[in-house]
Amino acid sequence: MSDKQSQNTLNIKNINEFNMLKYIFENKEASQSEISENLNLSPATVSRNLSPFLENKILKITGKKKSNKIGRKAEIIEFNDYYKILGIQIDKDFVKYGVFSLNHKVFEFQKIEIDASDFNKLKNSLTNQLKKTYRYKIISTTIAFPGYISGNEVISSSIVNWKPVYSDELVKLIKRIFPDSIVCFENDANLLALRERFLEKNKKNLLCIYWGHGIGMGIVINGELYTGEGMAGELGQTTFYKINLEEYLRNLSRKQIIQTWIDILDSLNYIFHPEKIILNSPFSDTFDEVVQTYNDLKNKDKLNVNVETSVGGDKAIVEGAAILASELFLRELTQTRDTWSVL
Predict the structure, then answer these.
(1) Which DSSP string corresponds to 159-188?
(2) What is the pTM of this model?
(3) Using CA atoms, how far apart are residues 174 and 183, in angstroms rounded to an integer?
(4) pLDDT per residue over 132-149, tens digit each?
């Protein structure tokens, strides 16, 4: 066999491994027969490729359930609790932390009020908080951030006084406490979109809006996250009556804010025709009223798009960070690294 043939065989094996692990992750648990059927792989291929992950205790067998074959029960496979994922969300006035396992269990979640525009305060807070989670085997970390991020360098952010060089310091901080961890930065609205895509597997086109200190929009088209170039998705920076939307909203009464969001949702629906628009914000009561008002109008005018607030609530962005961090770990594990840049 030539070197090229060997490499192609290895690539196919790695891709199969990744797809199988991803299937288990997305479904929390699975039997080998389910994986074989849904991924169109032979039972022998599934068994052979999963065996090393069971031996290394990345996966575990947790019981048996009824099989389609009479008289047989299939073994249930899921991820071991040992390896943990860390999701961090940074906004201007707070930081949120979540520790998750690959089988979706939540081990830690908390929100700490802090002026994140003061980098030294942020770094000290992160250091103290992460030291408390030192007992966990963190193997992948995603940091959610408001603004435009290229690779692992923060290019532009709505957090005052933030400098691109600070991202390097955060990576060093995390690596010092969790040396085996992958580290990745991603826009908060994009992570909301990844979370909702994960939950809404039957929907291919979604718009997800996160209104924190800034206003970002994550876009899923044909099942894939749209990243674009430059400031793509930075809804808050769009011009609205000669000033940007974020500034415009600050000068309005609550009633005017509700109506402005109704107008924005109408425009987005007209442009994108998504299957669903999902809203998330620390100002959840505002978006609750927006959703109620919009859906009342939708029923009256027979519009076809559903508008909802994210069921993840306060945890939504951190959960999105954990989903991305999990996928990055699985890609690292199976040597199928994708387009996200990780350190």
Answers:
(1) STT--THHHHHHHHHHHHH-TT-EEEEEEH
(2) 0.89
(3) 8
(4) 888 999 999 999 988 887
